[in-house]
Amino acid sequence: MTTFISLLTAVAIWWAPSGGYQIGDKVENFSLLNTIDNEQVALADYKDKAGVIVIFTCNHCPYAKLYEDRIMELDKKMSAQGFPVVAISPNDPQKEPDDSPENMQKRALEKGYAFPYLFDATQEVAQSFGATRTPHVFLLHNRGGEFYLAYIGAIDDNTNDPDAVEVRFVENAVKALKSGLPPNPATTKAIGCTIKWKES
Asked: How far is it, in rounded angstroms, from Cα 90 to Cα 176?
């Protein structure tokens, strides 16, 4: 498994999702339950921020677990620059009981998440974004109170070993936006577990 992950992450494959929002698209407001405090959180709540780092993730996925501490560190670092993390679990808890709202809350409180951990009960938000993996990042840029998609993909270039990361895609994308430039690359391949969709 380790070798397989390393092989995947060692290859730079630029990719854009076939469905959902594309780079440059305006992202519509959404509102989801924050499992940490059982309050609703909306994208519109962040209109005073420079942007938002939306990350589709979950409890059970081994890839998501490998990135959990890095997501926490990313929020700590990027929130100070006006780009907080908003984590969303899109999985059907009927298929993955570990991803139930109750278990999401337990995990977030145990780890001390400083960002909301939202439950996409209908999976409509994940579908609108075109999310396919956990974790899967969508970096939004606030322009005049409206959010536009600026980057899609992975957090960095080494899923397996945070100490071996050479390219920090999300951090570089934020740096570009703060400099008035478009992120380059604007898309990378998200490495992770497939989203567990509800039966149609």
From this structure: 29
